[in-house]
Amino acid sequence: MPDLPNLVWLRAFEAAARQKSFTAAAAELGLTQAAVSHQVRSLEKSFGAMLFVRHARHLELTGLGNAYYPTVAQALEDIAHSTRGLIGPAPARTVTLRAPISTSVLCIAPQLGAFHADHPRLRIRLVSSVWTGSTPEEEVDIDLRLGPASWFGRRAHLLSEETAMAVMAPHLAPALPDMPALFAQNLIHIHGYQDHWLRLSKQEGTPMDDHRAALFVDTSLAAIELAASGAGAAMLMRRYAAPPLAQGRLTQISGAEIPMGQGHYLMPATGENPRSTEVSLVRDWLVTLFGQPLL
Q1: How far apart are CA 234 and CA 265, in angstroms?
Q2: Which of 95, 136, 173, 268 is the most buried (most CB within 10 A)?
Q3: Would the pTM count as exceeding 0.90?
Q4: In a domain, 241, yes or no
Q5: Rounded distance, CA 59 to CA 55, Å?
Q6: Is the domain of 155 the same as that of 282?
Q7: Radius of gyration for the chain, computed over Cα atoms and rounded to the nearest angstrom
Q8: pLDDT tens across 226-267, in order?
Q9: What span, in angstroms and rounded, lies between the C-alpha atoms of 226 and 233?
């Protein structure tokens, strides 16, 4: 079949013609814009004729392109139908999302079910860790991290700047008339955020007894449970504290809030197919989720 064009070129042509954009076609096919443009040019060169008129912001089919597109689109659709009929539908691509464990449990997991219900064909693998590095980089499609801007390159996308607030069990809060009374409580410290109580102390001008008995944990999840049980007061990220506050398990100590100097960042995509439709869909959802106002 010497007159049969390269099928890869045909796929690029069909997507670009339907989307009227090399950029949109590239996102759909999981390729770069340059790759799609090159494949279309190769097809045009094999014909010795132009299929598109290239404008600054969109593509326009030439007369030849208009005549050729319906045949190509139908042929590719027939191939897809035939393939599904023989071997069944292609397995859905799994999108692996990595996030800090407390972010996964308190922020992402409670909303993930509703998102998946809206996109039931998506397969999502949520990987949680206390510290980054427990999952090989090549297996991660979307990497959500928490830290100061200085930890990340300029290509990292800031989703949200975070603050920390003092919380404790509701039944203990009435016994705290002022800040000195707060600092007289057992103070729960979270590994990696040990300076939060000291910074609040300096902000409020209230001395902190460094020798007072305190509790130390390595996750905000543990700090939430300790504080809710009445074991003491904890400095929690407002985003993490929002669910137990809404449930009435914790209450905020009025005025006891500080900027963390940290935020949640989406790292530059590094997965096998970082521009795929599935990955883009989950990334866009995260941007929306972390942009919502908190309690």
Answers
A1: 24
A2: 95
A3: no
A4: yes
A5: 6
A6: yes
A7: 27
A8: 999 999 999 999 999 999 999 999 999 887 899 999 999 998
A9: 8
